[in-house]
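note to self — DONT lose this again. spent like an hour looking for the file last time. sequence + predicted structure for the chain T wanted, 196 res
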Amino acid sequence: ISFLKSGDTVVDVGANIGVWARAFLHHCPNAVIYSFEPNPQPYSYLKKNSENFGGWKIFNFGLSGESKIIDLYYVPGKSGQGSFFKENANLNLLSSCEVTYVPVCIQSLTKEFLTQQGGGNYFDIVKIDVEGAERNVVEGLKDIQWGCMYVELSINRAGANTVESFMKLLHNYWPNARIIEYDHGKICGDIYVANN
């Protein structure tokens, strides 16, 4: 937490109800956060949770290299595992739950969009937690620059990546990206990347 700065600009992809962003704002109250959540169910809570924070901008769409409507699968009441891959939506839940879907919008995070929102295209921190759609999100972020990135990297579920293939993708857009730390789990791993 010592590297956080009060005026950091942040991209929060897969925001869900905003727990991560709210914790970030606790440590950096003057940060500007752009949170993206395509699922309307948690987005309604995200909207409520962000109401009292002037620098917290929320958007009800996901990020990808192309703009389109796509099905997002989730278990009602357990939206934290929403995924574009049906088999990820109820992965590791204690009981079998019925998966449903909702059509959602995904698009690129372009310089034009950021200018319309009153910002630039540099972000101090990028956080990605998207249950298997990490590659799509990276392709949707190609127009931005960033300093540090945290990714919950899917390694043993639909949409899985290896660390090597993910880093190769990052290097297509940001050749100076390098791993700072990687914590390997059973289904996903936490990867921290610097871009300098």
